[in-house]
């Protein structure tokens, strides 16, 4: 069996790129619409086929594209704090008073971020049981003739981590299913539960990573791919 590194596997089949121009941004919004509106029904279907909300104004976006087909495979956004004193992140609104009292360092609130709207298009999610989650989490394929690809979800989480580091955020949050937090930990990304598991399009919990923890246990393979993504997304 061919022995190749994680970065070689990822870049052989996919590219990650920042969505800063209108055309790439629309690709992101179309993936979100396909997953969150058409497939899962979390948000209403729109006539223009784009899923967007008020948090996009304060966000950075990354898109993963399948090289062979040119198709967008997944996307993620990083919500940045707009600097308004009474403004709250989406996870704070969803979790309310179930959050731990010390879930956020107030001194670093202005530089805090939230990883959000991570989605893998259903055509790139292989396992039948993963069609009820926008993140997927299994190996991605396009058709039955393709070999197994890297975890697109993990590539997107690493892309989000690259944006966190590039932004200079001291703490970042994400709402995910507990099984996905275990996936993050298995790959060396440290996220700690800072509240209770709540019902939010399924059972999800608020998890936090702090800047000193991000690279603490990340494996060498993950570091190489992360540094590649930092350069691309910078």
Explain what you see:
The protein has 234 residues and is of the alpha+beta class. The chain has one domain: Gcn5-related N-acetyltransferase (GNAT) (Aminopeptidase), CATH 3.40.630. The chain has seven helices and eight strands; from the N terminus they run αβαββαβαβαβββαα. It has helices at 6-13, 22-39, 90-95, 152-167, 178-186, 211-214, 220-233, and strands at residues 14-18, 59-66, 72-80, 113-120, 171-176, 192-193, 198-199, 203-210. A hairpin with a 5-residue loop joins strand 2 and strand 3 (72-80).
CATH topology: Aminopeptidase
- Low-confidence segments: 127-131, 137-150
Quaternary structure classification: single chain
The rounded distance between the terminal residues' Cα atoms is: 35 Å
* Pattern of helices and strands: HEHEEHEHEHEEEHH
CATH architecture type:
3-Layer(aba) Sandwich
For the biggest sheet, the summary is: 8 strands, mixed
Outline type? globular
Mean pLDDT: 87
CATH superfamily: Gcn5-related N-acetyltransferase (GNAT)
Number of domains in the coordinates? 1
- CA radius of gyration is 17 Å
CATH top level assignment: Alpha Beta
What structural class results from the helix and strand content? alpha+beta
> Could you estimate the helical fraction of the residues in percent?
25-40%
Determine the strand fraction and express it as a percent band: 15-25%
């Amino acid at each position: 069996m061919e022995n190749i590194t994680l970065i070689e596997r990822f870049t052989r089949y996919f590219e990650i790129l920042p969505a800063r121009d209108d055309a790439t941004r629309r690709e992101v919004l179309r993936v979100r619409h396909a997953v969150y509106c058409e497939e899962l029904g979390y948000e209403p279907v729109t006539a223009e086929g784009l899923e967007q909300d008020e948090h996009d104004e304060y966000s950075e976006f990354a898109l993963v594209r399948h090289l062979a087909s040119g198709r967008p495979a997944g996307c993620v956004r990083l919500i940045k704090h707009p600097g308004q004193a009474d403004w709250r992140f989406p996870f704070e609104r969803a979790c309310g008073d179930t959050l731990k009292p010390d879930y956020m360092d107030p001194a670093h609130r202005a530089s805090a971020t939230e990883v959000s709207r991570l989605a893998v298009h259903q055509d790139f999610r292989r396992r039948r049981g993963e069609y009820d989650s926008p993140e997927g989490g299994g190996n991605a394929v396009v058709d039955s003739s393709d070999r197994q690809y890297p975890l697109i979800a993990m590539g997107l989480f690493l892309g989000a981590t690259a944006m966190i580091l590039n932004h200079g955020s001291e703490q970042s949050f994400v709402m995910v299913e507990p099984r996905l937090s275990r996936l993050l930990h298995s790959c060396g990304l440290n996220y700690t539960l800072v509240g209770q598991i709540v019902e939010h399009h399924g059972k999800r919990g608020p998890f936090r990573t702090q800047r000193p923890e991000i690279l603490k246990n990340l494996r060498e393979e993950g570091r190489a791919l992360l540094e590649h993504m930092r350069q691309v997304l910078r």
